[in-house]
What we know:
The complex is a heterodimer of chains A (327) and B (283). Chain A has 327 residues and is mainly alpha-helical.
Amino acid sequence: MxxxxxxxxxxLTVFLAVFPWVSALSRSFSHYVDVMIFAGIFSLVxxxxxxxxxxxxxxSLAQAAFFGIGAYGSGILTGHFHWNPWAAMLAGVCVAAxxxxxxxxxxxxxxxHYLAMATLGFGVIVHIVMNEEVxxxxxxxxxxxxxxxxxxxxxxxxxxxxxxxxxxxxxxAFLFSRHVLHSRVGRALRAxxxxxxxxxxxxxxxxxxxxxxxxxxxxxxxxAGSLYAxxxxxxxxxxxxxxxxxxxxxxxxxGGMQSLWGALVGTVLLTFVGNEWLQxxxxxxxxxxxxxxxxxxxxxxxxLVVWMxxxxxxxxxxxxxxxxxxx
Amino acid sequence: MGDRAxxxxxxxxxxxxxxxxxxxxxxLKGVSSRIPKGIIQSVIGPNGAGKTTLLNCISGLLTPxxxxxxxxxxxxxGKPPHEIARRGLSRTFQHVALFPRMSVWENVMVxxxxxxxxxxxxxxxxxxxxxxxxxRIREDAERWLEFVxxxxxxxxxxxxLPLGKQKILEIARALATDPVLxxxxxxxxxxxxxETEELGDLLKKIQAKGVTVVLVEHDMNLVMDISDRxxxxxxxxxxxxxSPSEIKDNPEVIQAYLGEDWAEAGGGLTGNSLSGxxxxxxx
Lengths: 327, 283
Ligand SMILES: Nc1ncnc2c1ncn2[C@@H]1O[C@H](COP(=O)(O)OP(=O)(O)O)[C@@H](O)[C@H]1O
Ligand SMILES: [Mg+2]
């Protein structure tokens, strides 16, 4: 890691460590811990999506579906079959990975709009299954009675415990992904983004790598879904529809696609915006997102993190350092 | 120098009766050649003759409509390019195809992909073998950058280099794959005279390393200077093949491609057409 990034990472860890304490000091802030738990869960999804979109250059409108597969996998296996939640999470992850592989092999041959359409279609199908398979999923009226999680013999209860659990997952996923990006795999993904034909001619198995990163993004989304299921203990198909897939894409674009930090920042900001202020817009929320996207595309096409980074570099008159993986 | 005997080793690359149709257009109408190990073989011909198409058929970016491509004794037509690359065939592109947003160094590191193996897990957990491998990738890439003389630019984004250096970077990236055979599609395109001379020296250095070179090029001075053998393509067919001096003196070639300028400039006409003994040509 560069020293700047190390500082940022340490800063993030300290911030997360004290966040529940600081929030608890004031009544009007205490529910921010709850919002941050959701932000953490969504960050798991968007970190995977950032690798897929920002680095490999493949768009997916199916992330809510993988999120849902993880959530319903855990909900059904622990609720109906009384599985251990960790085993259920693992099973959900395996199913999501298998499904991503089956969907990804043909879909990732497609480019641009066609890939978006294919993943969108898949997401819609999953959403229909959630609505129609009433015996398993509870259909539109939802699936309740999902038990909590135990870790090291103790039940995870209370917002602070959930906060630490979720963000431990996020930091692990962040570090793992960062290491992947700074390896031959990450370079190959970025090469695919820049020039598929040249990457292939240099010995990069383009299709297979695209499928791998798609599967990886599905795995992270499924882990997030499983945590979500146990945290909220009630699932309904509305949390996994196309609108959510679009939100995940927006979070990545908002923070900046070329950087994992962008995924984190974009997700936290948009989760707060969505939770705190967009409620009043109700059905017009999509318009607000559309407006945000338009402004971003016009004025901050690189996303917030790259923009801020450049801003501070300019202020401190630092020479730009060479790109070393972009995250 | 062009008359030196071609080593009669078993061919590193052999293609036979390669045809390529694009809808109604036939870009290659049955092209054959055997390329011995270690030589520099040039492929020349006017624009649209099918040179790039031939390279694409060899490197796997295109699957020939018919015919065979045998690389190191193995039929490779229809195999994906990354597998052919792994077998030791690399290339550059007529229209520069670098990874422009990656650094010069990283571009060459991508060339090591097929020779290394750390995957998602090994990278994500930074397993010890992966770290060692990563160090080797960086060192190997640096060595290739030194070999072509681009080491000072290693941290620049590839897209920021001037065209001449981008062309050289493509060669470095191709060399990093440890090729047995390297296909170069008009590497001198866009280079000035001095850069072209340096390119000639570089190609000789590559040959000296034992790498076979197939050079598609329009710069006749470069071609005649460094080639062991020249194959002339014309409308998707082999018009002639032989040593540079044979090609210079071939009236068909002069008429079809080199043009009157060449004859006037002293290319010479000996009336010694190759058409009669095309069966015996070594190509
Ligand atoms: N992908 C393609 N689709 C259709 N026609 C093509 C394609 N690639 C090449 N051609 C045609 O094949 C012929 C040979 O092209 P090319 O191999 O690029 O020639 P050269 O490299 O010798 O200039 C040209 O007539 C060209 O228009
Ligand atoms: Mg060409």
